[in-house]
Amino acid sequence: MEERPATELTQNDAPIKAAKGDSSLLAVFRARSQQIFQDKAAQLLPGRWEQLNTFDFQQLKSQLEQKKPALRQRLECVIGLLLITGRSLDSVLDTQIIKRLERIPQVITDQAIYILSNEPACWVSGVYRPENSRQLTGDWPAHMRTTQDRLALPIPLIYWRLIKQNVLEVAIRVNKRSVPLFPKDYREDLREEMKALLSEANRNTGSRLTVHRLGAHLFNTLNQGDADLTAACLITARVPSFGQQASLYYYAPHMKRLEQHYIHAMETIRQQWTPSSPSSVAEPSHAAAYANASSDSAHHVGSNLVPTTTYVNGLVASMQQQIKAAKKGSTWTALCSVHNAYVAYTVAMLMFSTGYRSVRDPLPSWDNISLSRRIIVIADKTDDQQSHARFLPLTSLMVEQLQHYQRHREGIIERLSFYLQNRWDTPFMFLDHYGNPKEVTPTRLHDQLQWIDSPPLNINRHFLHTRLKESDLSSEVVDAFMGHWDPGQEPWASYSTFCPREYQALIASVIQRLMVQQGWKALKGALL
Fold first, then answer.
1. What is the pTM of this model?
2. Is 144 helix (H, G, I), strand (E, B) or coil?
3. Interatomic CA distance for residues 421 and 435, integer angstroms
4. Which Gene3D superfamilies has this protein been placed in (predicted)?
């Protein structure tokens, strides 16, 4: 599967207006400028112009102190919610107050905000899901991680002080259903007061305050340092300026992991808001336990396609049993069956050790792999410039399996020399009942593997992405392994500081451990 050619991607969406002096050459220049802008935006460098800092917050606090107490209280509440939730001003003004989490509607959007007024306080919102996520059909969803449609996060004490008085005043009126924090007939006035406050601060002090920057500050803070951009998207329901994050389709973290990211980011913002105050680490929220489910296995959000460890272990054992059963036969048909089972096992092992996509001819040439150096080059989804081709380390277990497979393949080719008019160059091939070689395609691989309840073949990528991050590997390393980078973030680009040796040392040991846990073994072929 390939993306569109680079020449097509750089075409201008609007037609050329020759009558106004436009030309195809100018259109190319415009496209190049747009690409340069996208590359810069994709870098997410800290301290950029649109990101707020301590100076901005101190000027905002100074401006707030000049307001009348009643208005200051409401404005502080709005600012606090913008910083706490990372949502837009519209979402903040539509905030609802509840006394019991059971009162939250069954279906809520990722922009909805519900505040539990009991202490320790928390806020709840729907979980962001990327567009065109796969629909759950058939029986295989039962073997995937159970994910929730809402996320509950604690409100740190210092931010609770900003919103507490407003929240408790409204909470008195809460009975069964939720009650809006801000009356509808007052929201527009509050919006104008907020804009006036920021304009005054900018005009008088030279700060760079806007409603959008306040709402995006949590997202930007979550992306500082060795950050996980995918976690930032799930917490704030925002995506980066350069577009959708591919890793959102593959990640299903535990809610406690997201809560740790969130608390760390809120502490950073606290230091900007009140530099001299002591730390106010948020208390673990009792709401998270309810909002997720009763069992720990359900405390996840994100991708619905992350298989459970038990299910993956069962798949590995089933494939090994297929090979063992096929070896018992001695007929020509049995030889073809054991070969096909062995090829499918080796390809599946490669997929679960490298994150290889289920594409036609998984390994098109032996030139793409070096067993002596334990390196494989994968270009399973890329463009004309091979910008998403990636280098991956091979574990000792995978190298041993490929060595066994090479010897098996040579023996099969010798036996089939009469049928093979031309030498079969691709490393992997299936055989039909007559011994004719067949290309390894996703459909043939799916039919041969016979995985329990027939899940999508790409569950290996969902499993690896999530488990690698749960092994405390940095987001940068995981994205380099999975091929989840955007233009301007290529780990192998000319000016990249990404170190291949450190990357290989980090990732290989974790993959080896995961493969052993799953039960993978280096098996000899039928002819050995």
1. 0.84
2. strand
3. 12
4. Intergrase catalytic core
**134 within 8 A of 305, measured Cβ to Cβ:** yes
Q: What is the DSSP letter of 299?
A: -
Q: What is the secondary structure of 432-498 as a DSSP string?
A: -TT--EE---HHHHHHHH--TT---TTHHHHHHHHHHHHTT--HHHHHHHHT---TT--TTSTT---
Q: When comparing pLDDT for 488 and 378, which is higher? A: 378
Cα→Cα distances 207→58, 201, 203, 313, Å: 9, 7, 8, 56
Q: Do the two domains 54-298 and 309-518 of this chain adopt the same fold? A: yes
Written out in words, the top-level CATH class of the domain with range 309-518 is mainly alpha
The predicted-structure confidence for 313-372, as pLDDT tens digits, reads as follows: 999 999 999 999 888 877 878 888 999 999 999 999 999 999 988 777 778 888 889 999
CA–CA distance, 523 with 359 (Å, rounded to integer):
23
Cα separations (Å) of 317 from 47, 180, 313, 349, 428? Answer: 51, 54, 6, 12, 22
**How many angstroms separate the CA atoms of 345 and 513, rounded?**
19
Q: Output the CA–CA distances (angstroms, integers) from residue 405 to 86, 103, 240, 431, 526, in the order listed.
A: 52, 58, 43, 15, 10
- Quick: pLDDT tens for 400-451: 999 999 999 988 888 777 666 556 778 998 988 877 888 899 999 999 999 9
Which class does domain 54-298 fall in?
mainly alpha
